[in-house]
Amino acid sequence: MRQPPINRIAPDAIKAWKISAAIAEGMLWLITIALFVVAFIFEFSYWFGAVAVLISGMTTLFFVFLLPKLRWRRWRYEVFEQEIYIQHGILIVSRTLVPMIRVQHVDTKQGPILKKYNLASVEISTAATTHEIPALLEEDASELRDRISALARVDEDDV
Amino acid sequence: MSEAKRLHPAAIIFNLIKTIREFLFAIILGFITFRDESLLYFILILAGLVVIFITSSVLTWYRYTYRVEDDELRIEYGVFIRKKRYISKNRIQSIDLTSGVIHRIFKLTKVQIETAGSGTDAEASLSAVKLAEGEALRQELKSRSLESAGDDEFADETAETSNPSSTIRFKRLFLAGTTSGSIGVIMALAATAFSQVEQFIPEQFYESSVQWLIGLGIIIIAVMTIVGLLLLWLFGIAGTIIKYGNFTITGNEHELFITRGLLEKKQVTIPLKRIQAVGIQESIIRQPLGFVTVYAEVAGGSMRKGEDFSSILFPIMKRDEVEDFLQTFLPAYAGLQRELRPLPKRARKFYIMRSSILFLLATVAVGIFFPSFIWAPLVLLAGSVFLGWLRHKDGGFRVQGRRLTIRHRLFSRNTIMIFHKRIQAFEEKQHKVQKLQRLETMRLSIVGTMGAGTHFTMKDLEESHTDELSDWYSHRSQ
């Protein structure tokens, strides 16, 4: 593979991802607790609950404490005058080239968790694909959006 | 053509059919509900509805007018709410003429006009106009320099045109039918049926006469199954002949016109600049016979029901006729490359593993639980290993200037030619095992139908090759 892109996304992305993963895990823990309650009321075997605890614990460890950091470490991007270069993926490393002249529109998005850390994602759409650069600092994201949309304005003859 | 015109009165029939189809469910539901007590009321209501439907169909027809004025197609319609739709000539991407069976009785045609929008329906659809009128309208709306292009072969098939044209011969059409996709499934089914029968017959014969009769029954069933499969196959042939009968392609330097269909006659226009890629497909049955299908990936527009995702440019031709065909109709895509750069040898094991892993597991499972039936998954396993081997052997790519040729196989072998400017994004992927083996997966995206992308994935290319390709694609290196 060629040289990876140079820019990293905001370090706070790890925290934001941890929170959203924790919320999803919270659901799993609720189910686990519910299993114990059901077992207590209907005099069920506690085995199901025990297995659920094991599963919840392991997934929590993995998705909340391990994955965000690995993901952040891999995520890189670079915006050139002619194209956008993105790298992501933990087990499968993917590097994508999106030419500026193919960009149809650019969006910035911000959910409540990203907002808490003043982050935003940039979404780049071509006529065939969409690519997302998640969790940049708010100023960076809007600056990047404006820059890409300015660079993408170069028009070519047809689709 | 500045005066406003109405559609042919047959449009009333089409309006009526359309309205009835929309209300059919409600009518059937009503019938079931009121069947017992108030059938009389139901019939009265139904009669009323029919009168309303007919009136509204007539009114719709009466209020629907179209005209060409100031380089625009102007349609005015609507019974209670008057609507006007003006479509500028310059925005029209293609004009398709379709004649169904009813149309052909009255010598009519349906005109569908498409702009670049990505809706599911055509921008404007004139459900019934006289064939000559449709032709004239098309001529009229064909703006710019295309006016002189002789494309009246739809109305007058003997018209002499300077544009190249190619028609399918019946023998070829028949061959296309006999080798169409359904035959593979049928052959597999027949093979399974035969092997089953063979398993049963000897046992049955050794036993008493009653058993023998049952055996006879099984033979009858088997014969009937075979006859059924044969019928299916014949239907497949007939379907192909009806769909692609009289297939004719004509081209000029801006567009391709395709006319096809025995019962429903269809004319489709493909503007050359909307073609994103050209592909050559060799199905597993046709490949040994040396026959191919040529198709194009066409961007955007509407996608009608029952249409294929990519447009068939010619249903069947000999492999060595392709070059001539491309020279004539798509000169930009001519210069077919057979010598492609192959996948590395070390990728073969991954290909074979990917295609056969499921069957390997199945073989193990069957071997444990039903050892006497082990032959079935074994056959499938051998087939899948062979398929994986073929997939590896057929994979390859080549860059010629601004054009990229890739070849890959799922079941059919596809050779696809894409120009640099049509590729929307380029992605290279590598997982841990690939990294050890210095292999990479490449994924190209082009514009597909209805605003969704079409993606081509090539697995396990040489790492240095994908780097070359990404350098080729990168807009920085220009």
Automatic annotation (TrEMBL), chain A:
Database matches in InterPro entries: YdbS-like_PH
Name recorded for this polypeptide: YdbS-like PH domain-containing protein
YdbS-like PH domain span: 72-148
Keyword Transmembrane helix: yes
Chain ranges passing through the membrane: 21-41, 47-67
Keywords for this protein: Membrane, Transmembrane, Transmembrane helix
Pfam family, one: bPH_2
TrEMBL record, chain B:
Location of the YdbS-like PH domain: 61-140, 246-327, 396-473
Membrane-crossing segments per the record: 12-34, 40-62, 173-194, 214-235, 351-368, 374-390
UniProt entry keywords in alphabetical sequence: Membrane, Transmembrane, Transmembrane helix
Superkingdom of the organism of origin: Bacteria
InterPro entries linked: UCP026631, YdbS-like_PH
Pfam families in the cross-refs: bPH_2
Name under which the protein is recorded: YdbS-like PH domain-containing protein
